[in-house]
Amino acid sequence: MSAEATQTAAKQAAPKATTPDVAPVAAPATAPVAAPGTVHSAAPIGFRDEHASVADSAVGVLLVLVVLLGACLGGLLFAKRKGWLNRWLPAPSGAADDASRLRVEQVLRLSPRTVLYRVADERNRYLILESTASAQLGPAQPLDQATLPHDPHA
To answer: Quick check: 6 and 14 in contact, CB under 8 A?
Structure first.
């Protein structure tokens, strides 16, 4: 036998290696061949849709902000009306009551920029001189010592 025949006989006589059961791999499908001169375009890549502008998103954020601020303001007004905030809000002082008893008895304009006021409360009278540069307070005579205008017909 020749050497070639020996090698061929050895290959045939050699035990075949056993392979695990593997499904046969199909050949990849090939793209259809376009005729020369025709343009084949692939499907576009699906990017995200950007029809909404930045202004639309900013308006949405501002709308939510306005709604939240309105809800907070409404809640505070409701709590104030119910009296739940009295612990944190200062009570009105008695100074407002004292100021309401003052009355202006007379106003005298001394110059275009200077005014003299006569002001009285329950016990005393005061003179207030006001100008563009300053204001001065001076006592006038108390009401019990004030001379009443003389009525000649009395």
So the answer is: no
Q: Which of 146, 121, 145, 125 is nearest to 137 (CA)?
A: 125
Contact in structure between 117 and 107 (CB atoms under 8 Å) = yes
DSSP 114: E
Sheet holding 125-131, edge to edge: 103-111, 114-120, 125-131, 135-139
Q: 85, 61, 84: which is closest to 69 by C-alpha?
A: 61
119 closest CA partner among 133, 98, 134: 98
Which tens digits make up the pLDDT trace of 108-135? 999 999 999 999 888 888 899 999 989 9
What are phi and psi for residue 109, nearest 5 degrees?
A: -85, 115
* Alpha-helical regions (H) of the chain: 3-13, 54-82, 95-100
Q: Parse the chain into domains and list their residue ranges.
A: 56-85, 102-139
C-alpha to C-alpha distance for 139 and 136, rounded to whole angstroms: 10
Instruction: Name the one residue in this structure whose structure tokens are 């307070």.
Output: 137
Which pTM does this prediction carry?
0.32
**Cα 100 from chain centroid (whole Å):** 40
